[in-house]
Amino acid sequence: LRKERIDLVISDINMPEMSGIELLEEIKKANRHLPVMLITGIGSDTIRSRAYSSGADSFLAKPFRIGTIESEIGRMLSGIKRTRILIIDDNPDFLSSLTQRLEDADNIVYPFASVSGATSFLESHAVDLVITDLKMPDGDGISLFNDLHKRYPDLPVIMVSAYATDDILEK
Known about the structure:
alpha/beta, elongated, three-stranded parallel β-sheet
């Protein structure tokens, strides 16, 4: 990967020297835009969630039809991709519900309950959209928006709140 231009990485999760998830994390540190597909014979929601939260662009559980992987490869190489959405909300019920709805709509969702965890994630992972609560225990959506706008001026941010007042809306 350091010496050759690669358009797509496909890796099994269970490997002898380094797991596919560890490999994925190393790849994304070096090139967060390189698409990575992880495959595994141990298909569970936990593994799928960990793969996506580590930056996977696609995940397939074995057994799968050859047509399925061909379709995923074609989608990934043609630029047709799932929207990668970062959600930050300290309400676990809302976070879980929104994550599930967005995943059901074929998006890749990275849920976080804290601003610090989300901003750390963004240092090594690319996303297409951020949805954040306005009030968080370790920060606020307005400060986060200002920081994100400086670092990623084209990144769309949606702010949500159950406590929106006129002064907050104005900010």
